Request: fold
Amino acid sequence: MDKIRAPAVFSQRKRQKGIRTPNLTCSYEIKFNEFVIFIMQRKMGMTRRTFLMELARRKGFRVESELSDSVTHIVAENNSYPEVLDWLRGQGVGDSSRFELLDISWFTACMEAGRPVDSEMKYRLMEIIEEGESSRAKEVLNDERYKSFKQFTSVFGVGVKTSEKWYRMGLRTLEEVKAVKTLKLSKMQKAGFFYYEDLVSCVSKAEADAVSLIVRNTVCTFLPDALVTVTGGFRRGKKTGHDIDFLITSPGHREDDELLHKVVGLWKKQGLLLYCDIIESTFLKEQIPSRKVDAMDNFQKCFAILKLCQPRVDNSSYNTSKNIDMAEVKDWKAIRVDLIIAPFEQYAYALLGWTGSRQFGRDLRRYATHEKKMILDNHALYDRKKRIFLKAGSEEEIFAHLGLDYVEPWERNA
Reply:
């Protein structure tokens, strides 16, 4: 996000720290008073932005260093329409309709013509709703690097860093990756490849319900008063997903740091555990919430793959000449399961964060930061003015702290 000073019109916002656009001392004759241009620094950099501002001023354009009510045209480079809107919201702008949101190509055309050119459709930052499709999205979807990364990251345990490494090695498909016998894979990635077909297929609501029964029964074996809640897309009312997230807490004061270890130990004995990785809690008491909208929380977690047994398909109608070996018919499916342990006093915040959607969570955190001078994450809500943590026993109380009407889980999809 650009590090520029907040304009006077947005007096409620404090002056932001960091790099500020330097004041240009040179003065030039303004020829086109009806056009007031603001160039976004985001994804452009300060040096290039300063050069373009100087260039435009030399040609008689009025260019503002800071965003204000006088601005009529906002120019962005390599930013999509939603990204610009998101940036404007971060600057405290509620209504962006008063600005012309334009691509850098419009600015270039103006500089070449030595005068303002019409902000034709081809220069405007569009949203898919208006055009029916996104040319930028189409360009990305057809990009070789994007196609490879999409394949690579579909494997459980493979992220952008590993995808970049494989791409630089000249690998473009999963088949090529599997063909490299000397490639070192983590335990998680090996499981991701081994159970790939199951893990990339959608998890149905019925399968999620079946796994929920297994998780609840196992957890309550060791912690009878445990509260086990399905979060993520299934809590938001979705009928399918790619994994199932469970938030676990206990209303009592007792906390069992070994609970996840006991749970996976029992699953292993029962032959249900195909893979697991337990991440211990790194939360510090009275820890101030993270300012990052996508920051990971510090709860104890278990990323697992469970074997969900399924009824055998009745093959009696098949012709016996097909020589189907019933002993080899797979009657189970590998299912991705995430277990998160949250202290009861943090449960409401954890539930809000893990329910999602990701975009809803981002927007809520930005709202807390920019509008309420608070910091929200999956652990707590911190009031920076009062320098206190705000307690909440439910999601409704969190929304109340933020001065917002409660939003039901199924209304949070974005």
User: Anything to note?
Assistant: The chain has 16 helices and 14 strands.
